[in-house]
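Notes, Module 5: Reading structure tokens.

Key idea: the token line is not a picture. It is a compressed description, and you learn to read it the same way you learned to read a sequence, by spotting repeated patterns. We will look at two proteins. The first is printed below with its tokens.
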Amino acid sequence: MIELVSSKSYFDRPPKMKITKTTIVFLVVVACLTVVVCLPVVAQTIPNDLPEKTPATIIKQDGDRQTVVKKLKKPKPIPVLLPTRARVKLKDGHQRTGSVVSVNSQQIMIKRGEISKAEDINNIEQIKFDKSECCWWPNGIDIIVLRGVGVETIRKDRHFKVRANELVWENVEEKAIEIKPESVIQIDNRPIYTPNDIPRSMRNVQGHYVVSKMEHKEQVWIITAALSF
């Protein structure tokens, strides 16, 4: 009789490891304890003085609806120039000629030679500037120069509606003047509700808008100007 001898008996093999529910719970507990212990150490290695970044987008909540809106940069003020000679038509039928050197919510200042005279803005119908005359042109910081004889405008006229109580131009002969974006309510018959509604072509312009006409109606200035470089 031939006896079959196995190299290793079935019963001599090592028993397989059984994974019970108790083992699983133990492993999960160990993993959680490891995270709790190591987390403070990791947090200490992260600097907490990093500068906060302004989000590029904002989220508007309207009931259950969320809208992602791109956050736009606030437009810079619109730089303007006034020719040195103007004709001011008053509502009482009179006229004044000279340089408009100041504008505020109550009056404008007209200078002729060495004499300056104030006019109430409520008595002003129209200011017409002579574009063939020179302009006080900013040349660096706090330096104004009288530029040439006439300034050539290279673009078509644009029409700005600006709140009269927010338009302040003081000492035009000495200071650069501008239109603040938040004071504009309309451009070329296009309503402006916020500064970001201002057309992109008018943002951060390198030149200046040369004013040719200003009209005062119902506490609003209607300014006609064309871009020049």
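Here is the second protein, with the sequence above and the tokens below, as before.
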Amino acid sequence: MNYPIFALELDGCWLKFHRQGTTPSGASYPLLSEIGTLRSTARAAHLEGIGAGEAPNISVTLNNPKRRASDLIGLPLRRRARIEDAGGVLFEGVVSNITYGNTLTLEISA
């Protein structure tokens, strides 16, 4: 089965996260909880207030038991991130927002 993974670039190295119970190719951490739906709007710059300023984005949720994910990634704002599978990169952007707690939710914007 081809499951997507979340990858985050920190200091020139890509940390990869997969769902527990899946078998990804390469080394990764089994902390991925959810990959949200890609949100994209039609660009209509000529119409004021109609999606003119919103970039495509997606949210990623990591399980954070005993702050394990927090300790791994620190504060990754403006770091490169991507969603990928065996076929290649599905979405790439930068971390634009992060919410810490029992889970970590990262917003990735193109």
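Summary for the second protein:
- The chain has one helix and seven strands.
- The radius of gyration is 15 Å.
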